[in-house]
Design a protein that fits this description.
- The structure is a homodimer.
- The first copy, chain A, is α/β, with parallel strands linked by helices and about 425 residues long.
- Chain A folds into 2 domains: about 200 residues, Rossmann fold (3-Layer(aba) Sandwich), CATH 3.40.50; about 190 residues, Phosphofructokinase domain (Rossmann fold, 3-Layer(aba) Sandwich).
- Chain A is built from 15 helices and 13 strands.
- In chain A, the strands form 3 sheets. In chain A, strands 3-2-1-4-5-12-13 form a 7-stranded mixed beta sheet, with helices on both faces. In chain A, strands 9-10-6-11 form a 4-stranded parallel beta sheet, sandwiched between helices.
- In chain A, strand 4, helix 5 and strand 5 form a beta-alpha-beta unit.
- In chain A, helix 1 packs parallel to helix 12.
- The two termini of chain A are about 40 Å apart.
- At the A-B interface, helix 3, helix 6, helix 10, strand 11 and helix 11 of A face helix 3, helix 6, helix 10, strand 11 and helix 11 of B.
């Protein structure tokens, strides 16, 4: 995974000053790898070259920056950085603030006040939009501020990226949880619903399919879904409760049990989230998003729906249980090895972009070798290989990438193409024995 | 951890016939270790000696046995047994059936029909009671059936045991989840409730305290709860909602955030579970227990309670989130190393009891070396050491062990004694870096 040389077409005089780096949005298990990658890249590059003075971390993102609340990484010992990199969640603290023009003006004032010339922001599509806004405002006011975005999201929904740092580790948690929970479902049969994070994109819910045994799952028609989860519902496919009940009924009749993965973001044909309509006292964040995580309401409501619909006349209701994986899926301290390496390198690459004289940009991960056929035991595959490139901030900012149609099989399953896409990312999964 | 020689005071002629082994109740991450331990112990002992013919596994416990539904382990390859031992959940399938006299008569009929003379049952206090009933019925009908119970419960609530196989692994999951989730709570501050399994005993909820940094947590007065969870609520202490709100308010005012662990089994001063009163359409099992797991209702209701009580007049409600750890805590495929070894040995010890001529009994785990001072970095501790002994079935059957008073500190915290008890069991925990 060598980092290719960066074209320096936009290079020129590098402004002298300080650098800031911040973390924004929902934490992940590897976002501190990216933080440390930026710090390492700056210290060994622009700082060593005498261009950058202090390397400062924003406490709680731009919110802390406007208050001058920094952690100074310029002289932090490498041992401490290495421990920080292996610590889940955002070490600097995060923020859900979505800056408007007035807010960005305060960020820019903080840059002027702190002699900041390099601005790095690790986050999702809202964070890249913040980066873009601050950069545009700096350009308009003739303040030379170089702005770079480092991708991070367990939702995996950033444009221009094969996948995003944070997603592989969350996918690993979801796959392992579904593997183990399916064994539980075989042991004490019933209907089990697992609710997975992902507001608009279904990648993380789809990763539940990795829980199946892939050496046996493929038939000439596609996937034999005898292993759980047998039913997978992503936000990209409109959710129809009647069809859902019929799906579950069919599996439950055939097997006496049913294992289901549902995205928290499933929505009806009008785009209304099923969860949002069910959650009482729903909270909204600064982006106007209704709170979907941190509540078991969607799973419980779907469970009640199934109990009511599938109870035979005069008979006992089926055993129905619902779990909502919750925040542990984004911060579980056993990240994917691939994810750890890539998150670190993405951060370092952003610092290298600055060193190469780029004025702004977002780091994108490009897959060179698919790795998938190899991982599935075939001999005609290439080893998995990721490289990094610069893309314009506007190509990523405030946009959402969805699961492509080729990743779906019908309305309640994923395709083999998705499995081959996802399997190389999550790291080794345990092998279970069944009697 | 050598197994001491077993007294053979009750030995005599060993009846010749087959052996059965079954799993009952909620699965754990290591219950298959115990299953394989029993099989190994029988194959190398009574089977090798020509006393036991077939070693049979009951499919779904006594339920499968009454139908003659067995898996024959007599010739299963050791490699397959080793893989099975590392597979979470009950490989043979489990059951929630609680046999009465008529049911036990059918179990005994199945023994006679299958020439079964050795009966092993892996489970909690209900399973040991089944063992006791079947044994008493066999004695009354002059059928020589040797009955042994192997302890298993994530709730850790069996009498006569220092701790129970299954608990250390579940405690490991809870500790790691709370460690990571506390980092999340620091990163995006708010009030976070985590609901932990445990109907009557608070051991598993108490294990959330292992998430704190123990090198810094101890003051002369006891625990400095600056690390989360700051508040821990177990079923042994009557839960008072007004006091709960006041507790959270105090931490939230002081820190701007609050991290809370709550047992699913918390009950009011009359013994009514808080969860049971809140869950609509509650299901009950054959034991008359209301379903507490597989629902997010308790966490959501406690969250709503806090939002309503802590919203300032005319102001915004605090950010409140609730996660219910759910079934992954009992089947997460990264079990405690100590638990894996002990669960295997507990199964093997039961087979050795039979070989030694015992007629019945339950295996209990006794701690010899505390290990705790050593684990906490002191030099006056002994290494952790567990041994095994036989106890009467009636000493364990249908009884519940609660957290002793010395494990509590006040109504919302655990004592240092609990930490020293629990820490050696869960295996190495990751170290996190905080800025």
């Amino acid at each position: 995974m060598a980092v290719p040389p960066i074209a320096t077409t936009q290079s020129g005089d590098l402004p002298r000053g300080n650098a800031v780096v911040g973390q924004s949005g929902g934490p992940t298990s590897v976002i501190n790898q990216s933080l440390v990658g930026v710090i390492e890249g700056l210290r060994s590059g622009l700082h060593a070259a005498g261009v950058v003075g202090r390397v400062l971390g924003m406490r709680h993102g731009v919110k802390g920056m406007t208050r001058g609340d920094y952690f100074d990484f310029t002289d932090t010992h490498q041992d401490r950085l290495d421990r920080l990199a292996c610590t889940p969640s955002s070490g600097l603290g995060s923020t859900r603030d979505k800056p408007d023009a007035a807010y960005c003006e305060r960020v820019l004032d903080a840059c002027r006040k702190g002699d900041v010339r390099y601005f790095f922001y690790i986050g999702g599509n809202d964070s890249s939009d913040t980066c873009r806004l601050v950069r545009e405002m700096a350009v308009r006011s003739n303040y030379d501020l170089r702005c770079f975005h480092v991708p991070k999201t367990i939702d995996n929904d950033l444009m221009e990226n094969d996948h995003c740092p944070g997603f592989p580790s969350a996918a690993r948690f979801v796959a392992m949880a579904c593997m183990a929970d399916f064994m539980d479902n075989i042991s004490l049969p019933g209907i089990k619903i697992n609710v997975v994070m992902g507001r608009h994109a279904g990648f993380l819910t789809a990763a539940s399919a990795l829980a199946r045994r892939h050496d046996r799952d493929w038939t000439s028609e596609g996937i034999d879904s005898s292993d759980g989860p047998q039913l997978i519902y992503c936000p990209e496919v409109p959710f129809d409760t009647e069809r859902f009940i019929a799906d579950v009924d069919a599996v439950y009749r055939a097997k006496g049990r049913c294992h289901i993965a549902v995205s928290e973001g499933i929505s009806d044909s009008k785009g209304t989230p099923i969860g949002a309509t069910l959650i009482k006292n729903a909270q909204t964040d600064a982006h106007g998003n209704v709170q979907l995580s941190g509540s078991g309401a969607l799973g419980d409501q779907l469970g009640d729906l199934l109990k009511a619909a599938l109870t035979p006349a005069g008979g006992k209701p089926p055993r129905v249980r619902a779990d909502t994986f919750g925040y542990v899926q984004r911060c579980w301290p056993d990240p994917s090895p691939v994810d750890q390496v890539e998150a670190r390198r993405a951060g370092r690459y952003a610092a290298q972009l600055a060193l190469a004289g780029q004025h702004d940009g977002s780091v994108s991960i490009v897959r060179q070798g698919s790795g998938s056929e190899l991982w599935l035991g075939k001999d005609n595959g290439q080893p998995y290989l990721a490289t990094y490139r610069r893309v314009d901030l506007s190509a990523v900012a405030a946009k959402t990438r969805h699961m492509p149609a080729s990743f779906f099989q019908g309305h309640n399953n994923v395709s083999r193409e998705f499995i081959e896409y996802c399997l190389p990312l999550v790291g080794p999964l345990p092998g279970f024995e069944r009697l």
